[in-house]
């Protein structure tokens, strides 16, 4: 079985398609509540030339996890002015309508961020 990634095989993130098609709910058994999360669909097309099929998967992330990601990417790769999340709000991260209103902005962040970080 081939390793998912090695230092000698860089990923071409510009050939990946990242979308946030909808907001879903996650049942937090510890807090006993339903928390809205972004569904992130990923399609990897960068290995077709070497005989691999397109890979698809989905991950679910909470609102605040996007800001953790932004912080870590900035820490390790520097700031990218054209790839910024909207200002963080304390009120709203558990509100379905609020997340729905931010879906397109967060999707754009993931798409632009992948392209920006590929160039460096």
Largest sheet: 3 strands, antiparallel
Note the overall shape.
globular
Secondary-structure element series? EEEHH
How confident overall, as mean pLDDT? 80
Number of helices: 2
> Largest beta sheet: what is the strand line-up?
1-2-3
| Helix content, binned percent | 25-40%
The unreliable regions are none
Secondary structure class reads alpha+beta
The fraction of residues assigned to DSSP E strands is 25-35%
**Global Rg:** 16 Å
End-to-end separation: 30 Å
Tally the beta strands.
Answer: 3
Summarize the structure.
32% of the residues lie in helices and 27% in strands. The chain has two helices and three strands. Strands 1-2-3 form a three-stranded antiparallel beta sheet.
């Amino acid at each position: 079985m081939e390793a998912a990634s090695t230092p000698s095989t860089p990923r071409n993130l510009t050939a990946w398609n990242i979308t946030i098609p909808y907001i879903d709910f996650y049942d937090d058994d510890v807090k006993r509540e339903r928390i809205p999360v972004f569904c992130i669909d990923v399609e990897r097309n960068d290995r077709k030339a070497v005989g691999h099929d397109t890979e698809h998967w989905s991950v679910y992330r909470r609102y605040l996890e996007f800001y953790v990601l932004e912080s870590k990417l900035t820490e390790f790769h520097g700031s990218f002015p054209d790839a910024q999340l909207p200002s963080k709000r304390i009120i709203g991260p558990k509100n379905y309508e609020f997340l729905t209103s931010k879906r397109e902005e967060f999707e754009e962040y993931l798409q632009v961020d992948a392209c920006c970080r590929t160039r460096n």
